[in-house]
């Protein structure tokens, strides 16, 4: 493998990896707040892409993206309020089935609105053949947008959870719901907020990746599986590790292209998921002490 | 007590005959085709029902087992062995009488495996895959289990979609009929329609009989106890892991048998049979019927599948199943037939305030 | 009541130097004692003393961090709960764990599981051999319900029974295993004095059947009445091990139960 090709793969890996990381963080936010794995997480990404593409007919790109993110956040909140909020201590199996049902519904709604056609946002800067070069390696500016947006989201979330009162309240709720309730925190609203946040970052990821990966009504589920793989790799609930794990998975996937036929590429991340689940369900970076995970 | 358990089975037999007579009387024999298909899907669904309800394990990958059965049966009975005719193993199998000599659509001679051999290989493979996958997968719980089975189903889907041997996105067509018994050929041919209807429903009844026996037996009692309290069951000497694995394999075999027969009946199989949407649909039908209510599962499974196959839901097919899934899980997690209206109304009126 | 003197080879259960740590918490700290065959031994101590943890260690629900547990002379290290159960150790639970949707009789029949054979396929095909076995299981389970005085409730759904009756069903289920050792986790919790007296009679009856009993109990009158020996736990460590009479005199035990300030 030539050094040029190596760096080409590496950048592709980091690009996809940062998207996976954002999806994984979306899983983690909801998981930390509720103990639920939201099987409709991938659909938030799809919705972000699709809505922004449609809005682009009426408004400039930045506004379309901002509106798409806001709309998806509203959808996230609506889902939580309609389907999750009023259930009293539902079983894990029930929650799994409900979120799977939501995932199917969102997919079907998207199918009926946008059809089966494959769409994409235009490149934010230049077009698909625009590249800039670092040495002899050519990189699309969109790649930079993706990595930048992911980095900003991770940093922003970090700041939000550590430094804002609401972020701290959300963390309190996930650490000990009862105690947080006693301190006067409205845990239910925190859960709604977690769905909104999770939907928002998913939608933003869906927008920035759309020019490279394209968007289709059913593009969410594959992404969700990969995002979940990353969430598990990093240890469920651990968003810092998810960033590392995401980039790791992206790179593994990118380099696997040179060994495994493209058609099997998705199977690789799933195989990794299965192996991790069997061997080290607490994640590569997680410890056995994370006793909460065993509570399922 | 015992005989009471078997009464609904007799009812199901009567229903089978009544449905046939009804289609004859109303001149709607074409319904028999979808009724036959529904019975095969019903077999998948009751198998999954025992797994979810009695072993308490979710599987969002059961379409994978159906597809392993169907695809292997299709491939083995259509892929030409002529190029390997000189290989010792082909000659050996030929001598054993498990190879069919025939002609393809262009009149060229071809050799394929007999449907019986294909069926046995397909079902055994599905069972073995379930065993190998099940050992690690069933150690997982909750979300991990759901994702692992979803992952398994997706891998199966991708493999069938990616391999030319399995026809990629076109699937496999031209699958021959299956001369199962001297008087019975499993195929979509019009002349076999009535017999095929009775064959599929009889299989469903037998499949149900086995499951009812199982649930009423010592093993079934152990399974039911596991569902309620794994800790207390294990303290009574019950090996939870082994029973879950056995039920997992059994349900995979049910799915594979249905896959094999439906593929012969339809004359082909495509990758959509392995898709996540199919797996989720099976889960939905079990949930609608009620997790611990095998009869409910059977009725809702066969009934809704029939409506879906008749195209009643139009292009909203998946949306309907998604909606049903959510509504049932929200309002009546015990299944529609277990719906208790009063507590439900109370919850709606007073609300779920903690 | 005097303690039975048992030779060393007649030890049903032996704990030696057992430790259990959860992260930084030292839940069980160097506990050793023996339960002689055919005796009734009680485990007492204030809340949080580690009694239930110790039970879970003995029943194989948790692995020990250090030390060993021998049951019938065999180490239970690495054995699964169901394997230990099959060796002849039955238990009841502090927070009753009966099976939903099953009659009292069926719950007890589950207890016969490891004493019967019929397998998966025999069950599916409903072979005649399974009918015979099923009949035997049913008969034996009825006997046990009868022994506990709730035979008339056999067909009632177990979880709908009164509290004391549920405890009885649990005990019948444990006995159905034909255990050598039975672990009773607070058998009198939540019972009134009449029911407690009944439980005391029952525990003695179980011992008379040749079954060794280890129980955790808060009701001191019950413990003092029926036990041959008592082990006192405090903060995960063994504080004392003696006959009921001597335990009642033990100043340290009195201190942890009454509190240090209340030296009356």
How much strand of chain B?
Answer: under 5%
Strand order, largest beta sheet of chain B: 1-2
Share in helix of chain A: over 70%
The N- to C-terminal Cα distance of chain B equals 43 Å
Look at the helices and sheets of chain B and give the structural class: mainly alpha
- Report the principal-axis shape of chain B: globular
Oligomeric status of the shown chains?
heterotrimer
Q: Strand count, sense and closure of the main sheet of chain A? A: 2 strands, antiparallel
Number of separate helices of chain A: 11
* CATH domain topology of chain B: ABC transporter involved in vitamin B12 uptake, BtuC
Order of SSEs of chain B, N→C?
Answer: HHHHEEHHEEHHHHHHHH
- Number of domains in the coordinates of chain B? 1
Task: Give the SSE string of chain A.
Answer: HHHHEEHHHHHHH
The tally of beta strands of chain A, per DSSP, is: 2
Which consecutive residue ranges of chain A, at least 5 long each, have pLDDT under 50? 288-296
3D structure, described in words:
The complex is a heterotrimer of chains A (296), B (354) and C (264). Chain A has helices spanning 3-34, 41-55, 61-84, 92-114, 141-163, 165-175, 177-182, 187-213, 219-234, 239-256, 265-279, and strands at 132-134, 137-139. Chain A is an all-alpha fold and 296 residues long. Chain A has one domain. Chain A is globular, with a radius of gyration of 19 Å. Chain A starts with a helix and ends in a 17-residue tail after the last helix. In chain A, 49% of the residues are buried. Chain B has a single domain (2-350), classed as ABC transporter involved in vitamin B12 uptake, BtuC (Orthogonal Bundle), CATH 1.10.3470. Chain B is 68% helix and 5% strand. Chain B is built from 14 helices and 4 strands. In chain B, the strands form 2 sheets. A two-stranded antiparallel ribbon of chain B has the order 1-2. Chain B has a two-stranded antiparallel sheet with strand order 3-4. In chain B, helix 1 (2-26) packs antiparallel against helix 7, helix 3 packs antiparallel against helix 5 and helix 3 (62-78) runs parallel beside helix 6. Chain B starts with a helix and ends with a helix. By secondary structure, chain C is of the alpha/beta class. Chain C has a single domain (9-101, 165-258), classed as Rossmann fold. Chain C has helices at residues 51-58, 81-88, 104-111, 120-125, 128-147, 163-176, 193-208, 220-226, 244-249, 251-258; strands at 11-22, 25-36, 40-44, 66-71, 74-75, 89-91, 181-185, 212-216, 229-234, 237-242. In chain C, strands 6-7-8-3-9-10 form a 6-stranded mixed sheet, sandwiched between helices. Chain C has a 4-stranded antiparallel sheet with strand order 2-1-4-5, covered by helices on one side. The chains are: A mainly alpha (296), B mainly alpha (354), C alpha/beta (264). Chains in contact: A-B, B-C. Chains B and C meet through helix 7, helix 8, helix 9 and helix 10 of B and helix 2, helix 3, helix 4, helix 5 and helix 6 of C.
